[in-house]
Write a structure and sequence with these properties.
Helix content: 40-55%
CATH topology: YaeB-like fold
Number of helices: 3
Shape: globular
Distance between the termini: 30 Å
Strand content: 25-35%
Number of strands: 4
Largest sheet: 4 strands, mixed
CATH superfamily: RelE-like
Length: about 100
């Protein structure tokens, strides 16, 4: 299993997703959604190269879709580095540059 690490932005994305979910849908629904994201992250740790490469987002960027979010990550010898976790309606290229 590959090591999983997160950018500060990805950590913030996760917290924001959970906060939004609790506020808009309630704690039970938010918990289920967060569990799905965590399961997808665990899957990436187990199968690091399972998600397709997305050269349109940058060199080495891969993207896994989980419901309405994209887990944008890179894979190298040290493991999986989660760059961002963004809602599919966001301008991914703009958020990857910031």
């Amino acid at each position: 299993m590959a090591e999983l690490s997160f950018s500060i932005a990805a950590q913030s994305d996760l917290a924001d997703i959970e906060e939004y979910g609790v506020r808009e849908f309630g704690p039970d629904v938010a918990e289920v959604y967060m569990r799905r994201l965590i399961q997808a992250l665990a899957f990436l740790a187990r199968y690091p190269r399972s998600a397709p490469e997305r050269p349109d987002y940058g060199e080495g960027i891969r993207s896994k879709t989980v419901r309405k979010h994209l887990i944008l990550h890179q894979v190298d010898a040290s493991g999986v580095f989660v760059v961002r976790i963004l809602h599919h309606s966001r301008d991914v290229s703009r958020h990857l540059k910031s």
